[in-house]
Backbone:
């Protein structure tokens, strides 16, 4: 069974063996926030219009975290701006997605001793599953195959959070053009979400944010 | 199973977002620390007295402070309408058109880099006496500058907030020491009388007044940074204006007080001669006679840290300009990359470090004087470029509000911006005319015209480049001035979907 968008993104943004992050926490947080909202768009629960989230009348998503997030969106209907939600979710997306991956058995906690304290890091239980996510994208894109929509969004998040080199490695420059074409073919809500994620990553730099 | 509010109980999104927003004190600290007051007092003011031979520096600071305060009225009012507030070129692109925005980007990149290169000279000059006093060793200024360069190069790729708290403590210490020094200078006036001579307004009507304005701009650079927080201010429309005026007020007060007190202590008639003899040491000499060795040690130490803070500030400013240009694709996309560990602009940072390294080596080999030849010439050149940016920005503000209907008052929309445009233009023309006095070179010197000429060429080439982009690369053209909101990595843009002409319908979303 394929993983959900945020699970895929988490595995792609962390090393498949050591489980350490491939980019700074702020950037990964924004990527995960984008992925969580992306799941809701893919579930048909929300739409994005003019940089705002619109909640749609649709059957409840079939995932507990997505349902919880949708309820939170409903409870806080005074905040609809996508940049605000990305900012807010980026703070806690990491731990939520980790919980979901732990529950599904894709991660296991490991204690590592640093200089003075012990820290828990989460290591993929099966590094083939973790590595496969990146390989799947790179493989299809380098053969110029059409990816399924969730994978196009995933690749878009990779580009938006500047992880191309880590994910696509030696084919990074080769896949740039086919990927861009697939990205422009996405439905408006998903394109808007990717744009907002990329803008948030850049804004964090210009605004001295972590 | 998943409690989305697990972290902090029943937090509302609004309050969680509010907790991350910045209040007046944080933004004010930030803006003042960007100005690095002690560098201005010990470095800019003393060298200014010595090189220009003008004694009206205190009144020059006051006049420029007022002009910039008027400029800031329109500047902070327009900030919410500017996608990349905090960058002059974004204002200019919005008000004067995108080709002008391209030209302004080049100008900004050149000016901030020139500033940074110049300040490396000040570091050598500031640390030499400290090393002599503490360790009894004499080190060439450029060796010290290279050490500083290495520190800045490493910190530049780290995150600025890493050292934000340290910067705040140092900044407060700097301000206190300036106050202590100034009070002491005023209590020990030359000839027993406190002279108001250097504060007399008639100095603003003497030949060479442009030099005073150039120095003053040099001192105030950094005031423009507070608007970068417009979108995340605690009270939108209030926090950033208050912080901007507050930081401008505090720095004006410190500069006027400090430079005036210095002239009182030497006597207005002898200040230029004394500054010429002792350079930046003048401040510490005076303080040493009046306050003792302890206060001199503190002052010298803070001078060094202040120059270092100044280097970090300019380094980050230059790197962020390059980052925004990389995002807009006005520079290769490499400059729009974030460093892998944290949110710092890697490409711009590396560019700045390379330029700085080459410059220090060249100046060292050429045997230039760190304060007069390196610091003063290069930062004056940078200040002129930044003043030109301020002039262009103030015209952009006037035009923007003339064309756009917004709810603010006529004072904020029209009167203040027009006043600011007129006064900054006058200041710029004076700076241009007296640039030989600023640099302390004869009027027929090549430097007098080479620096403004260079800026002019840069502006013209930038303008042509902008028009060329309009025809050849309409997508890049559309992004000019948008900064991070240009969204060129995924190539999707941040406009409404209707604005994107290349939409192709695809298979419906596969529901999970």
Residues:
């Amino acid at each position: 069974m394929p993983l959900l968008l945020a699970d895929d993104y988490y595995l792609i943004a962390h090393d498949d063996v050591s489980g350490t992050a491939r980019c700074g926490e702020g950037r990964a947080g924004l990527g995960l926030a984008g992925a969580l909202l992306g799941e809701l768009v893919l579930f048909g629960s929300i739409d994005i219009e003019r940089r705002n989230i619109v909640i749609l009348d649709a059957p409840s998503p079939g995932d507990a975290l997505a349902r919880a997030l949708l309820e939170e969106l409903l409870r806080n209907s005074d905040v609809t701006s996508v940049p605000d939600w990305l900012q807010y979710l980026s703070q806690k997306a990491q731990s939520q997605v980790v919980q979901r991956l732990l529950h599904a058995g894709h991660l296991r906690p490991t204690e590592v001793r640093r200089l003075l304290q012990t820290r828990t890091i989460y290591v993929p239980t099966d590094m083939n599953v973790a590595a496969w996510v990146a390989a799947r994208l790179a493989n299809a894109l380098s053969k110029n195959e059409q990816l399924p929509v969730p994978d196009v969004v995933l690749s878009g998040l990779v580009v938006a959070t500047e992880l191309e080199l880590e994910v696509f490695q030696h084919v990074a420059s080769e896949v740039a053009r086919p990927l861009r074409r697939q990205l422009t073919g996405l439905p408006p809500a998903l394109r808007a979400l990717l744009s907002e994620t990329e803008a948030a990553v850049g804004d964090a730099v210009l605004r001295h944010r972590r | 199973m998943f409690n989305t509010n697990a972290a902090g109980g029943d937090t509302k999104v609004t309050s969680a977002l509010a907790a991350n927003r910045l209040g007046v004190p944080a933004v004010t600290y930030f803006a003042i620390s960007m100005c690095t007051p002690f560098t201005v007092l010990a470095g800019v003011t003393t060298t200014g007295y010595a090189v220009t031979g003008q004694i009206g520096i205190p009144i020059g600071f006051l006049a420029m402070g007022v002009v910039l305060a008027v400029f800031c009225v329109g500047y902070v009012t327009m900030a919410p309408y500017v996608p990349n507030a905090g960058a002059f070129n974004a204002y200019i692109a919005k008000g004067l058109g995108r080709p002008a925005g391209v030209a302004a980007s080049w100008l900004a990149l050149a000016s901030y880099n020139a500033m940074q290169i110049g300040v490396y000279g000040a570091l050598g000059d500031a640390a030499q006496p400290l090393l002599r006093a503490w360790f009894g060793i004499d080190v060439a200024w450029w060796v010290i500058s290279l050490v500083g360069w290495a520190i800045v190069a490493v910190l530049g790729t780290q995150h600025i907030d890493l050292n934000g708290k340290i910067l705040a403590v140092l900044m407060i210490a700097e301000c206190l020491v300036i106050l202590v020094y100034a009070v002491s200078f005023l209590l020990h006036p030359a000839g027993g009388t406190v002279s108001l001579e250097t504060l007399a307004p008639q100095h603003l009507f003497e030949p060479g007044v442009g030099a005073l304005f150039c120095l003053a701009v040099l001192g105030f650079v950094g005031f423009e940074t507070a608007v970068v927080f417009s979108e995340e201010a605690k009270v939108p429309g209030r926090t950033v204006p208050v912080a901007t005026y507050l930081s401008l007020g505090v720095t004006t007060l410190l500069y006027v007080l400090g430079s005036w007190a210095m002239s009182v202590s030497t006597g207005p008639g002898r200040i230029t001669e004394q500054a010429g003899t002792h350079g930046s040491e003048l401040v510490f000499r005076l303080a040493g006679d009046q306050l003792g060795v302890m206060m001199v040690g503190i002052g010298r130490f803070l001078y060094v840290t202040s120059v270092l803070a100044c280097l970090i500030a300019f380094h980050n400013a230059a790197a962020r300009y390059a980052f925004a240009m990389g995002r807009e694709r006005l520079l290769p996309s490499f400059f729009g990359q974030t460093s892998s560990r944290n949110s710092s602009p890697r490409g711009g940072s590396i560019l700045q470090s390379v330029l700085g390294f080459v410059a220090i080596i060249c100046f060292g080999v050429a045997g230039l004087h760190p304060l007069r030849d390196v610091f003063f010439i290069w930062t004056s050149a940078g200040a002129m470029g930044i003043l030109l940016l301020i002039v262009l920005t103030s015209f952009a503000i006037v035009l923007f509000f003339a064309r756009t209907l917004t709810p603010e008052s006529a004072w904020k929309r029209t009167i203040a911006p027009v006043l600011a445009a007129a006064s900054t233009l006058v200041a710029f023309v004076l700076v241009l005319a007296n640039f030989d006095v600023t640099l302390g070179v004869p009027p027929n010197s090549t430097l007098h015209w080479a620096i403004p000429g260079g800026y002019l060429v840069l502006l013209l080439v930038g303008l042509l480049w902008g028009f060329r982009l309009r025809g050849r690369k309409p997508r890049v053209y559309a992004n000019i001035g948008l900064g991070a909101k240009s969204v060129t990595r995924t190539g999707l843009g941040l406009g409404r979907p209707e604005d994107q002409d290349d939409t192709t319908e695809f298979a419906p979303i596969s529901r999970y």
